[in-house]
Task: inverse folding
């Protein structure tokens, strides 16, 4: 027994230092500056809660598994939901009206979505900008034109972009839509289109008391080369 104990103690006396050196806590104390800042050292490979993902297994003090994977997954799903779609950003921009910051929307714009229409009402970006009234909307309209925005498209009420400008009182937007240097809406016939109620943009402008827009349309029609629009304007008067 005595000799057997001697052999065992001899083996342990040699192996014990090696085992201790492999222990994360002992290694941190002896070789990594002692017990200071153990949280930052993460000597056991621990993670903060926000760093966990669905593949991590978490246990309590007794070693029982804690089902956090669903919580982590749902947290990730909710973060994805926080990322708004193009349609959401477009509608949010409209909701804010003249106070809207159009930069987030314009940052998402490209040639593929420039004629995007909302699912419920068929609103397009050029319509939104035509009626928005925000200071930077006019520059945005010209930028949309360069991407291929089509002002002739109509929403579910039969309104084109000029209807929007007329109804919402944006004379500057109407000028862009009717200007020969921009969309040349007279040639496109934006001013002639009747919506589902049979109303032209000019008629909407007059009904809403947006006389400045009505004047823009009148002047554009008066200076049109064919003269037909001018005659039509006289009849409406």
Result:
């Amino acid at each position: 027994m005595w000799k057997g104990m001697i052999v065992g103690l001899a083996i342990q006396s040699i192996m014990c230092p090696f085992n201790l050196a492999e222990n994360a806590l002992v290694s941190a104390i002896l070789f990594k500056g002692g017990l200071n800042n153990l949280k930052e050292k993460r000597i056991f490979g621990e993670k903060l809660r926000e760093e966990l993902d669905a593949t991590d297994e978490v246990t309590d003090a007794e070693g029982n598994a804690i089902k956090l994977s669903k919580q982590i997954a749902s947290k990730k799903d909710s973060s994805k939901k926080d990322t708004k779609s193009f349609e959401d950003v477009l509608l949010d921009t409209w909701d804010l009206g003249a106070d809207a910051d159009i930069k987030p929307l314009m940052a998402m714009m490209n040639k593929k979505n420039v004629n995007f229409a909302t699912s419920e009402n068929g609103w397009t970006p050029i319509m939104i900008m035509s009626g928005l009234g925000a200071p930077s909307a006019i520059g945005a309209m010209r930028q949309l034109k360069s991407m291929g925005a089509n002002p002739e498209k109509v929403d579910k009420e039969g309104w084109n972009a000029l209807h929007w400008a007329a109804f919402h009182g944006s004379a500057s937007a109407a000028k862009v839509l009717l200007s020969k240097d921009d969309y040349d809406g007279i040639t496109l016939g934006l001013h002639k289109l009747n919506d589902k109620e049979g109303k032209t943009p000019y008629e909407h402008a007059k009904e809403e008391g947006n006389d400045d827009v009505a004047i823009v349309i009148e002047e554009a029609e008066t200076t049109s080369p064919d003269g037909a629009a001018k005659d039509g304007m006289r009849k409406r008067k």
Observations:
- Strands lie at 58-59, 65-66.
- The longest helix spans residues 2-22.
